[in-house]
Amino acid sequence: MNLKLRSRDWFGKDDRWGVAHRAWLRAEGFSERVFEGKPVIGVCNSWSELNNCNAHLRQVAEAVKRGVWEAGGFPLEFCTISLGEMLMKPTTMLYRNLMAMEVEECIRAYPLDGVVLLCGCDKTTPAQLMGAASADVPALMVPGGPMLRGMWHGTELGSGTDVRRFWEEVRAGRLSEEEWCEIESCVSRSAGHCTVMGTASTMASLAEALGMTLPGAADIPAVDSRRLSIAEQSGRRIVEMVGEDLRPSQILTPHAVENAIALLMALGGSTNAIIHLVAIAGRLGIDLPLSRFEEISRTIPVVANVKPSGKFLMEDFSYAGGVPAVLKEIAFRLHLDAITANGKTLGENIGRFACFNREVIKPLSQPLYPEGGLVVLGGNLAPCGAVIKQSASSPHLRRHKGKAVVFQNNRDLLARIDDPHLDVDEDSILVLKNAGPRGAPGMPEWGHLPIPAKLLKAGVKDMVRLSDARISGTSFGTIVVHVSPEAALGGALAIVKDGDEIELDVSEKRLELLLPDAEIKARLAQWTPPAPHYSRGYGKMYLEHILQAYQGCDFDFLLGRDHGDDISPLQKFPNPAL
Known about the structure:
- It is a single chain.
- Helix content is 34%, strand content 11%.
- The protein is α/β, with parallel strands linked by helices.
- The chain has an eight-stranded mixed β-sheet. A four-stranded parallel β-sheet has the order 2-1-3-4, sandwiched between helices.
- α5 links the parallel β3 (114-119) and β4 (139-143).
- α4 (96-109) runs parallel beside α5.
- The longest helix has 20 residues, at 225-244.
- The two termini are 30 Å apart.
């Protein structure tokens, strides 16, 4: 390996600091041989007992280290914050940028020549990609994979999606407490992320389409032995990548980003992926307007028959051929010459794959849905955009006009949604305000507004719901999210009142508040912003620097790369004089 290694600035000198750097690692039991020009590979682990999605990553890390040793590298594992979607409040999205900053700064500050990123739960994947893109040291990602399917009374359960579905049955009085307890005991069967095409599955898939994983790495079940095998292969490959000096900036190109968007649409993937892709692109200085998602969506059908848009689960999807099979199906719309982490082009990678179940991965001639799963909306209620997953919505509601039933915030929603006296019917449009990046704060997954209990009991299955919040990728229904600008910034959503008429037209890509412009301006003139949620610490920094949903919800000071970052910290900031 002729390349000058970053780690030699730490370990390659015989002065006082070189001796100290080596000695402190030898205290861990390493011999002097590990410093004989071996590339140092960081294993960036997001393992945590507070995050069941990533709870198996210790074992995955050991497999990666095996591969690194085999290839002549020196692996060193380090942990970062782990964003566990289920337990972190108010939302992991509040901390995605914090994790991205930690990943970036750890890569830059430590003597690492390359890094393997171990992710799983929703925000861990984009956070690691954002951090690695900014640090721009050779990097490769190993997703944790989905958990095994749940089973209840002979029915397959998809974590997230079916919990929501059965909770509505409980609220409607059609499911007993005993049955609900039984579901709790079997819906989450193993380590790994959600078993549907939620945000975790979507982002792992998009990491593969971006070229940042080995082919086939995204969808292998978490507890499948092949997960450890591909982790070991990734450990070997990252050592080669260091020798080739193959960096994220060479892989994460505009063409790679467009490939990821095309896959997102074909999967009927999570609405959250739009925010994350914009943020990843922003780290590389790539302009990615929402209009680009809309343009690609019109040309790509949904072919993945996976919940919540379809019928099957991620385990079935993996056995059917997974991400490579879908990429091969939509190859006509891909940039097949895009370079990937294994040194080959995307076209070369997918050529050897095939589909093994046409019920799970549909052919282009018989798609699950004729257009991409996600639609970007405009109109006077969302001048900077809003998003709906049309593939998981109700056809009869995609063009709908109704009167608003407004909730000022999530506390107001929870307090009143099941009030039997709530003035609401099945034609109403449920509106949630102050649930965006600043207003919530952190833009939680509050957008899946529950259908009022009295309507559930009357047999109502879906309603139009809209907010400046996000929804889980496991959600379903006619739900509009990411309304921008958000209410807390004085977007039109801020001045919607009970009884105002709103019109949704998915085919025309419109979301309109049916009021005269003069009335909208008069209401906005009287609007006052809410008090900030934080006055100190990370929360204060977040509120001062967070961008809107259409801008990726990154911090304004993290956009683009400082090419001075290519210099090692020991060249920028030398050790004190001997």
